[in-house]
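Subject: complex prediction, re-run

Hi both,

The earlier run crashed halfway through, so I resubmitted it with identical inputs.
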Amino acid sequence: MSEHGPGDAVVIERSFDAPVQLIWRMWTDPEHFKAWYGPDGATVPVAKMDVRVGGTRLVCMEVQSPAGPMQMWFTGEYREVVENERLVYTESICDENGNVSSPADMGMPPGHPTTTEVRVEFAEVSGRTTMVMTHSGIPADSPGAVGWTMALDKLVAHVKTHGARQGP
Amino acid sequence: MATATDEDRLSETFAALANSTRRAILARLAEGEATVNELAVPFAMTLPSISKHIKVLQQAGLVVRGHHAQYRPCALDAGPLEEVATWAEQYRRVWEAGFDRMDAYLKQLRAEPRAGGRDE
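This time it finished cleanly. Structure:
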C-alpha cells in the first residue's frame, strides 16, 4: 500500500497473466489502450500518443450521462519512457484541441488538481507482470509542494481520527 | 456540480496550508476550539502575527470564529480538507474498473491472439 494519504495519490498494484511487453503495449499502443481505459461503460474514441520523453498525448473518453454521451478530453506530456519498465506522463483536462481547462469547469470532482501525474512501473516474473500505477496530484503554484502534501496527509488523517465536529 | 468558485476555493485551501504555522494551528484546532491567545502559546509570535495567520485560514474556510463569546474562539472547519482528500479516492474507482477491463481484454486477446491488436 501507499505511504501517502488519501488526498495525495492513488496507488494501485495489479498482477496480470501476460508478459511485460504486452502490458507495456496496453499503455502505449492506442488500439490496446482504447480497449480498456476508463470506467465501465466508457469508450475511448480518440487516443493520440507520441510515446517519447517530451511527446504529447491526447485522449478522449466518452461516458454516458443522463443528458446523453459526455466527452472528456485529457492531454499531457510523457516524462519518462523506459520500455517495459517505466512510463510517466502528466495529465490535464482539456478541450478537443488540447487546450487545458479548469477541472471544475469540466465537472470533475471538487479538489481535483489541475495537473496530475500518472506513473506506471512494470516488472515481469515468470510470465506474469506486476504493474504499479501511481496517480498523484501536482498542486500548482505551491511552494514546497512535497513537504506540505505530506503534512497535509497527516493533518487529514488527524482530522478524520478526531472527527470534524468539535465542542458543544 | 463543481464550479470555478470551487476551484478558487481549492487554491485558497492549498495556499492556506502551505505554511507550517497555519498547519500547526489547524492541528491544534482539530483537538478542540481555542481562543487566539491559546493558539499563540506554542509559538514565538506576537498576537497580531497569529491573528494574521488565523485570518488566512478563515478566508480559506478552514477556521470559523464564534460570534457570541467575548473571546470569539476559533474552531476547525474540516470541509475544505475533505475536498482535498477526495479527488484521489474518486479516481481510484475509475482506475480499478479500467484495470478490470484490461484483465478481461487480455483474456480475450489470449483467446483470439489478433483480436483488437496489431501485428508484432
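The two ends of chain B are 45 Å apart (CA to CA).

- K.
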